[in-house]
Write a structure and sequence with these properties.
Elements (H helix, E strand, L loop, with lengths): L4 H12 L8 H15 L7 E5 L14 E6 L12 E7 L8 H14 L3 E5 L3 E6 L7 E7 H4 L2 H11 L1 H4 L4 H21 L1 H8 L6 E5 L2 E5 L3 E6 L8 E6 L8 E4 L1 H8 L15 E5 L2 E6 L2 E6 H29 L5 E5 L2 E10 H13 L12 E4 L2 E5 L4 E9 L10 E7 L2 H9 L17 H19 L8 H6 L2 E2 L17 H13 L4 E2 H14 L10 H16 L15 H16 L3 E2 L1 H17 L6 H25 L4
Parallel strand pairs: 3-4
Antiparallel strand pairs: 1-2, 2-3, 4-5, 5-6, 7-8, 8-9, 9-10, 10-11, 12-13, 13-14, 15-16, 16-20, 16-21, 17-18, 18-19, 19-20, 22-23
Helix pairs in contact: 1-5, 11-13, 15-19, 15-20, 16-18, 16-20, 17-18, 17-19
Length: 644
């Protein structure tokens, strides 16, 4: 068979392409993507560039890249979602972990409603066919070396060339799989014998746990999860018993679990609290799991949620337990160059060099004094007598951060594999026994030891040799610890405000609905706490405005602003409004995060600006209601939002 000239040109170009010439993202676009689509016969006028910043959501606001979109028409006025064909995202040539980029490309491909979306670094190429009502089909997952094969290059051309793609009926693609699914569903319902047969294919329910391996099985769904050790990463695999998905195994990594599955645990599928679910109708849901999208029935979704709740609750518990035990919550978590740790404080570079010099001089092999307790470990300070490792201290130079002077060094409490090996080899329930002054030091104790013992000792030891005075060295220490009073120790009502602000920031970013059970005691306790506020409080219009926005959102009545003269409103009117919100949420299963945000802003304003008479019982109730909400917001801000 004669090979068409257009395919010959594509093969010749790809076989002559040298990916080593690519140095950055622009090179990937200019030297690979644009030529490739030229040889796939896409007219240049059918190509447009879009700044993703223009179409970003809160999830992807940090990535203002340029996307390449190819359309079926050369008429600019008609280049829209109806005529869009392919979305292409270029990434840096050296970047090999593509999961986060694929997730972003999927998001924007759905926005532009393209038929395909492609992610490439100029060497690896991943091509997905976008199907609204089924999992995305990974059409090609290959690299340049494989594409140089004549047969593979021909298949690539035949699947993605302009003439073929522009003639695909987009509407048919969108509805075909959903229609097929509904037909199968109806057949199953109408034929009891077939339904009985399918039920025999169900899994046998069970829950098994062995150290960090958890397997949860329900009739329709099974999840096998490798739970996270210390601050490491876990993963899981999901399978379905349905014959429609026989042979399908969905693999989710650590980021997928945190970013997709964790939100809305122990809530009903139709409440809109779970990030990975979207209800199609009363009998089916679209389910996004990692890079896979499937349609599931109510029964399948119910079993999936039960499995997710069991797995994710334990996943979350382990992370929280580790942070609690190592006392790390008050410190910023950082990951760089495959290093995990927490920023304790920062010091002047000269002081860090003296700290490191002292550790080298007082290696535990060189003497037996109380200060001979260090072991040389690259650039870090390893506090160890050779038998027991207490802690690892690592420098992180932040020369690119404008908030720090150029010669300032962040001191990192490092989670070193050597330090944590006892956790991994020991039993799950016993690792905590190693934490303490004679074992593994917590972040809090390490910071205290550094500031109160080690640094004063270093400064005193080198005082004659160093050109910097003790006062100058100590003055350059920047402490990053949050100055929050512990919730249980709060007796000043205004000390609640930093916690409320943290919760409000979390609610402001929250996209899904929230289970009302988490907010009911919070609404009630804080309404009671501010009930006896002096009527002379300033900003009554701000308070009433927030409450009316909640009222409008719930009633959808836009004429509320004319119902009462704002100038005559009193604080009693505001308390009546808060009481109404308490009644409303007590009769609700879930709450819109926008409402919770507005009500929290109202509580903050009243506490900051009002003269409040309250009892000890009211304050204690407010503290008790605050704790679970604060812990949930703290966990999600630390682990869920960065992985979305």
């Amino acid at each position: 068979m004669t090979i068409p000239e257009s395919i010959k040109k594509f093969i010749t170009w790809i076989q002559g392409f040298d990916h080593r010439i690519l140095q950055n993202e622009d090179d990937v676009k200019e030297k690979f993507i644009l030529p490739m689509f030229h040889y796939l016969c896409y007219p240049e006028i059918c190509h447009r560039e879009y700044s993703l910043k223009t179409y970003q959501s809160e999830t992807y606001a940090r990535n203002p890249e340029i996307a390449q979109i190819y359309f079926a028409t050369d008429d600019v006025k008609q280049q829209n979602t109806d005529t869009s064909l392919i979305f292409v995202e270029a990434i840096e040539p050296h970047k090999t972990k593509l999961n986060d980029v694929i997730e972003q490309a999927r998001f924007y491909s759905n926005h532009f409603k393209t038929l395909f979306f492609i992610v490439t670094n100029g060497y690896e190429i991943k091509v997905f066919k976008r199907l609204h009502y089924n999992r995305e089909e990974l059409v090609f997952d290959l690299n340049i070396d494989a594409l140089r094969n004549n047969d593979i290059a021909s298949k690539f051309y035949h699947r993605l060339n302009f003439d073929l793609v522009k003639n695909i009926d987009k509407n048919t693609v969108d509805i075909l799989t959903h229609t097929k699914y509904k037909l199968i569903e109806k057949l199953i319902i109408r034929h009891p014998d077939l339904q009985n047969f399918l039920e025999k294919c169900d899994f046998e329910p069970s829950i098994t746990r062995e150290d960090y391996r958890l397997v949860v099985v329900k009739p329709k769904v099974a999840i096998a999860c490798n739970l996270p050790k210390d601050f490491g990463e876990g993963n899981c695999q999901i399978e379905f018993s349905s014959i429609l998905f026989r042979g399908l195994t969905i693999h989710l990594n650590h980021q997928d679990i945190l970013g997709q599955l964790m939100t809305g645990l122990h809530t009903q599928p139709d409440w809109g609290c779970r990030r990975f679910l979207k209800q199609l109708d009363k009998n089916s849901f679209t389910v996004n799991l990692g890079q896979t999208t499937v349609i599931l029935s109510n029964l399948e979704v119910a079993d999936l949620c039960l499995c997710v709740d069991e797995v994710c609750q334990e996943y979350q518990n382990l992370i929280i337990e580790f942070e609690n035990t190592l006392e790390t919550w008050d410190f910023k978590l950082v990951n760089f160059s495959e290093i995990r740790g927490f920023i304790l404080f920062s010091v002047k570079q000269e002081l860090w060099e003296l700290m490191q010099q002292f550790a080298n001089e007082f290696d535990y092999k060189k003497g037996k004094s109380e200060w001979h307790l260090f072991h040389r470990e690259n650039i870090s300070i390893r506090v160890s007598r050779g038998i027991r490792d207490h802690t690892f201290i690592l420098p992180k130079f932040d020369r690119n951060l404008s908030l720090l002077p150029n010669n300032q060094v962040n001191i990192i409490y490092e989670l070193n594999n050597v330090n944590l090996q006892s956790f991994e080899s020991g039993k799950l329930s016993l690792w905590r026994q190693d934490i303490g002054v004679r074992g593994t030091w917590t972040a809090k104790y390490t910071k205290q030891w550094l500031l109160e013992k080690y640094i004063p000792k270093v400064i005193n030891y080198y005082s004659e040799k160093s050109q910097l005075s003790e006062a100058e060295l100590l003055a350059k220490i920047i402490n990053y610890t949050r100055e929050y009073a512990l919730i249980k120790e709060i007796d000043n009502i205004r000390d609640l405000v930093p916690y409320l602000r943290g919760i409000q920031s979390w609610l402001h970013l929250y996209v899904e609905n929230i289970a009302a059970s988490l907010l009911k005691p919070y609404y009630q306790a804080y309404t009671n706490l501010v009930r006896n506020t002096d009527s002379s409080i300033t900003g009554i219009d701000y308070i009433i405005g927030n409450l009316r926005r909640v009222e409008w959102k719930n009633t959808q009545e836009e004429n509320y602003s004319n119902s009462t003269d704002w100038k005559n409103l009193t604080f009693k009117y505001a308390i009546d409004g808060l009481d109404e919100q308490v009644v409303r949420i007590n009769n609700s299963e879930y709450e819109n995060s926008f409402n919770a945000d507005l009500i929290t802003r109202t509580f903050i304003w009243i506490i900051e600006n009002g003269k409040i008479s309250f009892s000890q019982a009211q304050l204690n109730a407010a503290k008790q209601a605050l704790l679970p909400l604060w812990e949930q917001s703290r966990f999600e801000m630390r682990y869920i939002y960065p992985n979305r």
